Task: structure prediction
Amino acid sequence: MRRRYPAIIPALVVKVRGSALQARLRYLGDRADAAARESIFAALQPATRAIFEKPIDVTAWYPFEAFVDVNVVMDRLLGIGDLQLCYDVGRYAAQLNLPAFYRAILSLGSVPFVLRRAAGMWSDHYDSGTLDVTETEGRVLTMRILGFETPHRAHCRAVAGWAAQVVEMVGAKTGPPLERVCESMGGPWCEWAIRYA
Result:
């Protein structure tokens, strides 16, 4: 008997590590009162809410859609709906989730060295794509998210905030990374320029 296969291959479900979701919970605990937290949880999609109703396992994989959902809802209810809060949460997550090993090398390496090493942790947090960091000119880095299956603006803003915080943790000064192109807006990938001093 011939085996039948589905005519349509299901779309890839991108996963995010629980540590990224836990960072959002910690941010809410630090920056929002009980009423705001309750409003945010009530506004989440049912599947996302179900995830947050149980303890988050920081080493487990969760649907990326839940990560996007919580970021967008937080931005809408705590911010002004322009995804700037996602940038701020990304900065917070860098401080929270950068392992002690990387904290130890912050004072030992240059900005390009440290950001490349931190970018090497991408697969520890996402099961899709890569984060590439190159030095394009003096004190300007180019950072690209390549091959990410389900790009979203909230994620891009969070990654930009994370990168800015890592640069500052090295002891350099930087402003928000300059977005050059975004895959979720039709670009071939997501790319930023990071200028530091």
Notes: The two ends are 68 Å apart (CA to CA). The first strand starts at residue 15 and ends at 17. Residues 39 and 77 are 8 Å apart (CA to CA).
